[in-house]
Amino acid sequence: MKTRVLTGITTTGIPHLGNYAGAIRPAVAASRRDDVDAFYFMADYHALIKCDEPARIERSRLEIAATWLAAGLDPARVTFYRQSDIPEIPELTWLLTCVTAKGLLNRAHAYKAAVDKNVEAGEDPDAGVTAGLYMYPVLMAADILAFNAHKVPVGRDQIQHLEMARDIAQRFNHIYGREFFVLPEVVIEEQVATLPGLDGRKMSKSYDNTIPLFAGGARALREAVMRIVTDSRLPGEPKDPDSSSLYTIFRAFAGEAESAAFRRALEEGLGWGEAKQVLFERLEAELAPMRARYDELVARPAEIEAILQEGARKARATATPLLAELREAVGLRPMG
Ligand code: TYM
């Protein structure tokens, strides 16, 4: 039996280096293996949780789809789709909601962070918190369980969501007395795990510290790299690679020998300016050919649309029979 690998990206902004190194690159590599059945998608229902600008969601979806394709995803080998084209996902979300402990969702990092922020500001703990944010982990569990994925390649920030998906699956299996769902396993690219952003914190749309993958071309990439925060050590003074996001990013884009040489150069006093130029050139070597493909793809949205519609058809062929089985198991009329 093939291993089913599944992952998604929320369509709220422009794809950044963290999305690429943490999720897209390993997922595309996995999809080339003959023993893998890959399901990759644009999480546009998730996008609604954070974004109420329709044009932005649409644009981001196109850009993220083009990014996957430019990064080498072959839609003939992979089931590549838009979350919102699969009605079985919100349907499963409800079935899972009804077996999910509220206490589990109370512990979700994103919800807790929003509550903590309110408390710190002396406001009502739930001020501005939507039920959508609260339910985020259940929707994500449905994304994964609707296809009974075995493995989910993600960055470290998604580990808790995967643990919750396993909890929810286990609970459903237990209540309804059968292994309807396999328990999905998280796959973390250790070399990347959490790619730091410009300020050293996790690279994230929410922190506004991202390095764009393709947007703005080589120039924007170079400008962003030059803005990576470094300490005040001067050229000639030894640098500590382990505390430098510059080195961490470099390592995520280079082989062992190249990383070791860069580490030595930093320890021997390479200036930050030069180090940034080295990093930029390393990134550009990997990204430039993809950027050219990306620019062509975003200019042809109709082609991408056709690919996604075919992907939705393939995805539903898997999800529909499972949902019919689940409906029957919980006592609803089986459809599909
Ligand atoms: P999202 O859109 O925030 O991020 C997409 C993927 O990129 C990874 N990532 C990173 N990896 C390393 N370093 C970083 N700085 C970094 N920033 C982002 C994320 O870990 C993720 O793998 N909830 C998900 C989308 C989603 C999903 C799913 C993923 C919805 N349903 C089902 C897997 C399976 C999210 O918002 O990711």
Automatic annotation (TrEMBL):
<dbReference type="GO" id="GO:0005829">
    <property type="term" value="C:cytosol"/>
</dbReference>
<comment type="function">
    <text>Catalyzes the attachment of tryptophan to tRNA(Trp).</text>
</comment>
<keyword id="KW-0067">ATP-binding</keyword>
<feature type="short sequence motif" description="'KMSKS' region">
    <location>
        <begin position="202"/>
        <end position="206"/>
    </location>
</feature>
<feature type="binding site">
    <location>
        <begin position="10"/>
        <end position="12"/>
    </location>
    <ligand>
        <name>ATP</name>
    </ligand>
</feature>
<dbReference type="GO" id="GO:0006436">
    <property type="term" value="P:tryptophanyl-tRNA aminoacylation"/>
</dbReference>
<keyword id="KW-0963">Cytoplasm</keyword>
<protein>
    <recommendedName>
        <fullName>Tryptophan--tRNA ligase</fullName>
        <ecNumber>6.1.1.2</ecNumber>
    </recommendedName>
</protein>
<keyword id="KW-0030">Aminoacyl-tRNA synthetase</keyword>
<feature type="short sequence motif" description="'HIGH' region">
    <location>
        <begin position="11"/>
        <end position="19"/>
    </location>
</feature>
<keyword id="KW-0436">Ligase</keyword>
<feature type="binding site">
    <location>
        <begin position="155"/>
        <end position="157"/>
    </location>
    <ligand>
        <name>ATP</name>
    </ligand>
</feature>
<keyword id="KW-0547">Nucleotide-binding</keyword>
<feature type="binding site">
    <location>
        <begin position="18"/>
        <end position="19"/>
    </location>
    <ligand>
        <name>ATP</name>
    </ligand>
</feature>
<comment type="similarity">
    <text>Belongs to the class-I aminoacyl-tRNA synthetase family.</text>
</comment>
<comment type="subunit">
    <text>Homodimer.</text>
</comment>
<feature type="binding site">
    <location>
        <position position="195"/>
    </location>
    <ligand>
        <name>ATP</name>
    </ligand>
</feature>
<keyword id="KW-0648">Protein biosynthesis</keyword>
<feature type="binding site">
    <location>
        <position position="143"/>
    </location>
    <ligand>
        <name>L-tryptophan</name>
    </ligand>
</feature>
<dbReference type="GO" id="GO:0004830">
    <property type="term" value="F:tryptophan-tRNA ligase activity"/>
</dbReference>
<dbReference type="GO" id="GO:0005524">
    <property type="term" value="F:ATP binding"/>
</dbReference>
<feature type="binding site">
    <location>
        <begin position="202"/>
        <end position="206"/>
    </location>
    <ligand>
        <name>ATP</name>
    </ligand>
</feature>
